[in-house]
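re: ur question from earlier - yeah i can do the single chain one, its not a big deal. heres the input i used so u can compare w yours
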Amino acid sequence: VNFEKEGQYTNTAVSKADNTNEDQANNVVEVKEITPELSIKKSSDRQEYAVGNTGIYTLTVKEKKSDATAKNVIVKDQFVTGDGISIVSDSIAVTLNKEDITKDCKITANESEFLIETGKDMTSKDELQVTYQVSFAKTGTYKNTAITRGDNAEEVEADNTVDVKNQESKSWTEKRKYNFKKCGDQRSDSRWNEIR
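and the output i got, formated as tokens:
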């Protein structure tokens, strides 16, 4: 027997024969909905960027309980510091089980945050993925928090932090190695030995 709703269900079994009185037995079961529990993971293609770079972020949402269904799942992402970063709103893409559902979603976005209302339910067999791009205009440390929840599922979150540096901020050692490599064929062996 499959139960589609919460509630108390009674079923009655009746037995009767030509030479016996009718007999019956009742059984009562109570059906409760299993509360779903979502999970979210967040990552970026790098942990360190240079000013002018564009980062690629990925959010992955799953339902953890095998017998539960999360209703009308939403995803929200927000940068703590909005100054110096810009979410590329037209880069936001949403897939459910690797099928593009971006056009089915209601997406509200600005430079530092977005909200995705998927209108989709999720079971433990489903995987929702969101990808988007962020451009970096200033140096700094940028933390953002991704949140997911459902109509019947509590909010959970995941954080990610990246560092943004000036493009010319290479260490002295890195610069020296680069210069040696660049002028390689122009040096003499004796000069090279002196430098080493």
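The longest helix spans residues 172-182. not sure if urs matches, ping me
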